[in-house]
Specification:
The protein is α/β, with parallel strands linked by helices and 399 residues long. 38% of the residues lie in helices and 14% in strands. The chain has 14 helices and twelve strands. The longest helix is centred in the C-terminal third of the chain and has 21 residues. A seven-stranded mixed β-sheet has the order 1-7-6-5-4-2-3, sandwiched between helices. A five-stranded mixed β-sheet has the order 8-9-12-11-10. It has two domains: 247 residues, Aspartate Aminotransferase, domain 2 (3-Layer(aba) Sandwich), CATH 3.40.640; 137 residues, Alpha-Beta Complex (Aspartate Aminotransferase, domain 1). It binds pyridoxal-5'-phosphate.
C-alpha cells in the first residue's frame, strides 16, 4: 500500500521523480527534497477508500505505513547498494531487528559472527532466545562454521569490518556457505558503507545499515536501512511497520542530504585515515594499529580484494602493562583537542573513544579477548579535517 495514486501525489509527479535519479523535467521543481511533514494523507473519495480496503489501488494513507520522503531515501539506498528494493527505519537497530524478526520463527537457528555491534550482539544473545530462537556464534574467519549448521539454521548474520579490531569477514565465502545451506544471509555494512563494498553483488541476500553513521554522515540523525530483493524487503518493511520502527520524514530528509556527498566524504576519509594510521604505526608509544590498509594487518590481502579502499575506522593500543596502557590511553583521550571524545562514528568530525568504557562495557575478559579489545584500545573515526592538523593533534596528545 505504498505506491501513490498518480493524481494525488502530494508534490506532483515531476518533484518525486526528480529525486530518485529519473529524468529531470518540469519548471519550478524544488532542487532540495521536500519533507512530507505529515502524519496522514487525504482520500479522494469514499470510492478510493473502498478500493484501498479491497487492495485494488494503493496510496499514501498514514506515515507509519508510507511517506513520499521516505520513498526517496529508500530509492537512493537501493541504488547505492545495487538492490531491487530498500526500506528505511527509525534506527539501524530497528532495521536489524526488523530484518531478523521478518524471517525467524520459534525453533529456528541463527549463526552469527561474534564481533558485531554491541546492540546487535545483545539482540542475538539475550532477546531472540526469549522467542525460542537459538543463536550460535562463529569467529570472523568463519572457522568451523560447518559444525554449527543444522537443518533448523535459517540465517547467517555477519558484520565486516568488525568493531573495534577491524577484522574482515570474507563476504564471498560467507555468501557461498549460506547458498549451499539455504540460509538467508545478512550483513551489517555500516562500517564500510556501499562506497567500499556492495555485498549484494557478492551474493548476500540482505544488507543492513545504521544510517546514523556514514550514510547520513553529519552526526545529526538516528536512521537505519535494509536493502535486498523486492520480496524479502517487502517482508522486512511489513515487520518494521508493524513493530512501529518507521523513520520520521525529517530524519529521511537528513539521510537523503547526507547521501548526496557520501562518496566524496568516504573517499577523502579513507585517504586521511591511511595517513593517520601510518603516523600512529610509527609512533614509539603505540604497540599496534588495527587498520586494514596497513600491510601489517592480518586481513590486508582480503581487504584489497573485498573493499578496494580501507575505510576510515581504526583502533590502536598503547605499549606497557594493561594498567599502564589504560592510563596512557586515558591521558591521550583527555588531551586530544581536534579529535572529539565521543561515541558513534562516520561523521565529518574525527572522534576517539575507549571501547572498554563504551561499546564493550560489561563484557567478560573472554568476551573482550574474543572481540580483540584491550584496556588500552583506542578506537578512532577519521573525519574530514585537514590530515596535517589531525596528525599534529595526535602528536601533541601522545607527547
Ligand atoms: C551504530 C551501529 C548500529 C546501530 O545503529 P543505530 O542507528 O544506533 O540503531 C548497528 N551496527 C553498527 C555497525 C553500528 O555502528
Amino acid at each position: 500500500m505504498r505506491k501513490p495514486s498518480k493524481a494525488k501525489r502530494p508534490f506532483g509527479d515531476a518533484t518525486l521523480a526528480n529525486h530518485v535519479g529519473e529524468k529531470r523535467t518540469g519548471v519550478g521543481v524544488p532542487v532540495g527534497v521536500p519533507i512530507a511533514r505529515t502524519s496522514n494523507f487525504t482520500f479522494e473519495s469514499t470510492e478510493t477508500m473502498k478500493l484501498l480496503a479491497e487492495g485494488k489501488t494503493s496510496a499514501y494513507i498514514y506515515t507509519r505505513n508510507g511517506n513520499p520522503t521516505l520513498d526517496v531515501a529508500e530509492k537512493k539506498i537501493a541504488a547505492l547498494e545495487r538492490a531491487e528494493a530498500a526500506v528505511v527505519a527509525a534506527s539501524g537497530s530497528a532495521a536489524i531487528s526488523g530484518a531478523l524478526l521478518s524471517v525467524l520463527r520459534a525453533g529456528d537457528e541463527v549463526i552469527a559472527t561474534r564481533q558485531i555491534y554491541g546492540g546487535s550482539y545483545r539482540l542475538l544473545r539475550d532477546f531472540l532466545p526469549k522467542f525460542a530462537v537459538t543463536v550460535r556464534f562463529v569467529e570472523a574467519d568463519l572457522a568451523g562454521i560447518e559444525r554449527l549448521v543444522t537443518p533448523r539454521t535459517k540465517v547467517l548474520y555477519v558484520e565486516t569490518p568488525t568493531n573495534p579490531a577491524l577484522r574482515l569477514v570474507d563476504l564471498r565465502k560467507a555468501a557461498a556457505f549460506a547458498k549451499e545451506w539455504g540460509l538467508v544471509s545478512m550483513v551489517d555494512n555500516t562500517f564500510a558503507s556501499p562506497v567500499l563494498q556492495k555485498p549484494l553483488e557478492l551474493g548476500f541476500d540482505l544488507v543492513l545499515h545504521s544510517g546514523s553513521k556514514y550514510l547520513s554522515g553529519h552526526s545529526d540523525v538516528i536512521a537505519g536501512a535494509a536493502a535486498g530483493g523486492a520480496e524479502l524487503i517487502r517482508h522486512v518493511k511489513h515487520t518494521i511497520v508493524e513493530l512501529g520502527g518507521t523513520m520520521d520524514p525529517e530524519a529521511a530528509f537528513l539521510l537523503i542530504r547526507g547521501m548526496k556527498t557520501l562518496e566524496v566524504r568516504v573517499e577523502r576519509q579513507c585517504e586521511t585515515a591511511m595517513k593517520v594510521a601510518s603516523f600512529l604505526e610509527r609512533h614509539p608509544k603505540v604497540a599496534r594499529v588495527h587498520y586494514p590498509g596497513l600491510p601489517s594487518h592480518p586481513d590486508h590481502a582480503l581487504a584489497k580484494r573485498q573493499m578496494g579502499r580501507f575505510g576510515a575506522m581504526m583502533a590502536f593500543e598503547f605499549k606497557g602493562s594493561p594498567k599502564a596502557g589504560l592510563a596512557a590511553a586515558r591521558r591521550f583521550c583527555d588531551r586530544v583537542q581536534l579529535f572529539l571524545l565521543a561515541a558513534s562514528l562516520g561523521g565529518t568530525e574525527s572522534l576517539v573513544v575507549l571501547p572498554i568504557y563504551t561499546s564493550h562495557v560489561n563484557m567478560s575478559p573472554e568476551e573482550l579477548r574474543g572481540a580483540g579489545v584491550q584496556p588500552s584500545t583506542v578506537r578512532v573515526s577519521v573525519g574530514l579535517e585537514d590530515p596535517e592538523d589531525l596528525i599534529a593533534d595526535l602528536r601533541q596528545a601522545l607527547a
